[in-house]
Amino acid sequence: xxxxxxxxxxxxxxxxxxxxxxxxxxxxxxxxxxxxxxxxxxxxxxxxxxxxxxxxxxxxxxxxxxxxxxxxxxxxxxxxxxxxxxxxxxxxxxxxxxxxxxxxxxxxxxxxxxxxxxxxxxxxxxxxxxxxxxxxxxxxxxxxxxxxxxxxxxxxxxxxxxxxxxxxxxxxxxxxxxxxxxxxxxxxxxxxxxxxxxxxxxxxxxxxxxxxxxxxxxxxxxxxxxxxxxxxxxxxxxxxxxxxxxxxxxxxxxxxxxxxxxxxxxxxxxx
Length: 271
Hints:
The protein is mainly α. 83% of the residues lie in helices and 0% in strands. It has helices spanning 2-20, 22-32, 38-72, 74-97, 122-152, 154-183, 186-196, 199-211, 217-245, 249-270. Helix 4 (74-97) packs across helix 9 (217-245).
């Protein structure tokens, strides 16, 4: 049983690291690609949102409610689930409030911007560094979400890790573009986009370190509902608006529906 728990924790860390370091994939695309495939980004961001929304409402929220209900009864169990769900949303929205609007890391940037001659400017460099820091802050709760989802259900966790990884790719581009224009150094642009992703395994590590002694069914129920709230907020606040900004509204919706369908099929096959 102890070895099984250790294996689950190791898998959770690996998948969280994989999801976080996808920002590096975005940085690599920015420095190597010649054009933005808008349809691809629109579809995949929509798909990522579909996976997160479906999992949040169908699996995590329901699992939380079941556990709370066992301990506190139907009505109180539902009340506690709802409070934790919106608590997760509140956590992410508070992080967003701390970020100046003009330095939002989810502003869509295109690969074509890399083809413009670099302008070595300290103000642009500062913007790129701040963007990297902001992405790191945003990635922290995402690391918690991925880590806890893997511990609850490894297969479910894999799907969430992939969904978060997809959504981290454009963030990597958002970091690499201003860094390159400020320094003219593609290597540095890639490195900063790559390093920003380490915030996700850091979030997972701190969660495990501080919460491990207190883990109980009720605490897990609370975390599941909060993770659901975090992912729903990310989907509506970041993923869907970004997928539409790439100019392919219908394609983003097809991606959203595909993500939900893939997740539904996966869960049916697991039964």
